[in-house]
Amino acid sequence: MDLSEHAEIKNTWAGCIFRVKTGARVKEELGADYPEFVAELIYLNWIRGTIFALLSLFAFALIMLFDLHYYQADKWEVSIGYPILFYSHMSVFMLFTAGIGLSWMKRPEKTGRPSRYHQVLIAAFLWLAMLNLVAISIADVFINGSIAAYIGVVFSLAAIFIISNWFCLFLYLSNMAVMVFFVNVAAAYTGKDFGIQQINIVTFTAFAVALSRLIYYAHIRDFKNRKLIKRQKHRLLELSVRDHLTNVLNRRSFAEISDMETARSKRHGGPLSLIIFDFDNFKCINDRFGHSAGDAVLIHSAELIQQNIRKTDTLFRWGGEEFIILSPETTLEDVAALADKLRLLIEAFVFPGGVKVTASFGVAQFAPGESIEDTVQRADKALYQAKGAGRNCVEKQPAHFFSC
């Protein structure tokens, strides 16, 4: 078996049953997502525990009426199991009432930092609930020798709650030991042989633990898949709005961001300007140094410009070797000064392979009554003027020069 086949088997659902992961291994496997995973488990167990407790309250309230009926019918004198049954039912009822009250005092968050308070509360609730349900099962053993209630308890909790390996072992093994001990007490008290019941207790506890682990590992797998899908969606979104070469925002992003900025400019009356520029004689760079050198010029220029504009300014790759900078709260004169600063930086920068380039810039300010496309068109005209003026310069295009 090669490594790829081995990895494929490890990732199957069946493989989840046989792989024992300690808390440290799960933490290592999930990495930075582990706190979110724990917080999600706490939240799910809190929701399920609340529903389980609410449903159980109605059931046990009804069951205690039957217990009182047995008391009136003198059943309590027949077997010690009946009073144990009543007090166990009452204990569970009080536990679930207290659990619901405590849980609703402070609700856990589904994501974020795990709540230690809820983690301890859920662990205590599960252990005490199972212990009380075990007491009910012991009462059944005294009455009719049946462990059906215990089997129902362990499988119900295994199917409902998602718990870690170590707590799972503690929860089930400790209560199994209590159950086995009191079955021996029942055997001595009644004079009956409960050997088969003891074997069944151990067997069905093992099955319940296996079911609990299968659900736990399945949830780990589901959580990892959901995080992977979320990251892939985020990556696809990034690819759809960013240029793959320079990693700056693309033309598609410009439409969305410029709409927001023009709406803000109209609402508050603040200036909004933009710069459009491209590199002079860029084809010559590709022909002389190769396309990889041209790509390096685009990549390093994008980095250089982003380092020298404000956080409120946004750089876009417009197409080919053309870029646009959208600059909110900036007048035409200020954006022209910024463009000249960037022009000098590009002119002085030495690109990989000793390549030197210059760039021409056109600037325009958004004017009332026009669209952002009109402003881009005016800046583009200014860029052509810069090219016609000998390149490596900045030209402005005021609004009154605009014509349809």
Give a structural overview.
With 404 residues, this protein is an alpha+beta fold. It folds into two domains: 13-235, no CATH class; 251-401, Alpha-Beta Plaits, CATH 3.30.70. The chain is built from 14 helices and five strands. It has helices at 3-10, 13-18, 23-30, 34-72, 81-105, 116-144, 148-160, 165-190, 195-241, 251-268, 282-289, 291-306, 332-348, 372-388; strands at residues 272-279, 314-319, 322-328, 359-365, 394-396. A five-stranded mixed sheet has the order 2-3-1-4-5, with helices on both faces. A hairpin with a 2-residue loop joins β2 and β3. α4 (34-72) packs antiparallel against α5, α4 (34-72) packs parallel to α6 (116-144) and α8 (165-190) packs antiparallel against α9 (195-241). The longest helix is centred in the middle third of the chain and has 47 residues, at 195-241. The chain is elongated, with a radius of gyration of 36 Å.
Protein topology:
Blueprint: H1 3-10, H2 13-18, H3 23-30, H4 34-72, H5 81-105, H6 116-144, H7 148-160, H8 165-190, H9 195-241, H10 251-268, E1 272-279, H11 282-289, H12 291-306, E2 314-319, E3 322-328, H13 332-348, E4 359-365, H14 372-388, E5 394-396
